[in-house]
Design brief:
Elements lengths: L1 H21 L4 E3 L2 H5 L8 E4 L3 E2 L8 E3 L2 E3 L4 E3 L2 E2 L7 E4 L5 E7 L2 E4 L4 E16 L3 E3 L3 E22 L4 E3 L3 E15 L8 E4 L11 E2 L2 E4 L2 E4 L8 E2 L1
Parallel strand pairs: 1-2, 2-5, 3-6, 4-10, 5-11, 6-11, 7-11, 9-12, 10-13, 11-13, 12-14, 13-15, 15-17, 15-18, 16-19
Antiparallel strand pairs: 8-9, 13-20
Length: about 230
């Protein structure tokens, strides 16, 4: 009897372990509706199954608290004219805090999340407002996350009156690791993309560690030089 009870307990433990290892199933994305469903399951793992053309869609940035596997595919012709609903606290070089809004494919990429093997091409991000804001093509905010093999191409424009504001190609504000990437600006006008560079060592922790990031036609500016008035890229 004791032996049977031991076997039953052992089987129950094994089933719990196997269930934990299996984790949540990957959510496959085939179209714009699938992208929009990220907001309903932000902590899930997603896999892009084909290229998606977002022509004619005004995208609302969503929060990601899981994994987004681009699977080598691309998101094309994305237009963003509004910030996401999620805000976070950002800090300037004097460690002053600001409640900030964000724009991009993702408004916020949470701690421990990852985005990889993704292309976002032909993007147009244009934000107007008076709130503190970071606008980018992939994510406005990404804190303690991992970005690997992400390529972005497009235009980012931010017009506002807030002090804590800025634009970028992959991530506007955050920390983590960018293992590889490719950032390109559109050549259909005179505008480009900013790459943010902190101008003091103590500020470096605010921004991603960048490894093998390829830049094309970019303007490099320093942290303190663009947090004033209107910001364009």
């Amino acid at each position: 009897m004791k032996h049977l009870l031991f076997l039953l307990v052992l089987m129950a433990v094994l089933m719990i372990i196997l269930a934990a290892c299996a984790g949540e199933p990957v959510i496959e994305i085939f179209d714009i509706n699938g992208l929009q469903e990220i907001s309903d399951h932000p902590g899930a793992s997603f896999r892009l199954m084909n290229d998606i053309d977002m022509q004619g869609v005004d995208w609302t940035p969503v929060l990601l608290d899981g994994e987004f596997d681009g699977n080598g595919h691309g998101i094309y012709n994305m237009t963003v004219t509004q910030v996401g609903r999620d805000t976070r606290i950002t800090v300037d070089g004097n460690r002053k805090e600001y409640e900030t809004t964000f724009a991009g494919l993702f408004s916020v990429v949470e701690k421990g999340s990852s985005v990889h093997d993704l292309k976002i091409m032909g993007a147009h991000v244009t934000i107007e407002g008076k709130t503190h804001c970071f606008a980018s093509i992939m994510a406005g905010y990404a804190m303690h996350c991992r970005i690997d093999n992400v390529t972005v191409e497009g235009r980012v424009r931010l017009d506002n009156e807030a002090v804590m504001s800025g634009v970028a190609g992959i991530v506007g504000f955050g920390s983590g690791i960018i293992l590889s990437g490719d950032v390109r600006r559109r050549h259909d006008d005179g505008e480009g993309l900013f790459l943010l560079i902190p101008d003091a060592p103590e500020e470096a922790a605010l921004f991603p560690e960048v490894i093998d990031l390829r830049l094309h036609g970019m303007r490099i500016v320093h942290f303190r030089q663009f947090f004033h008035g209107s910001n364009h890229s």
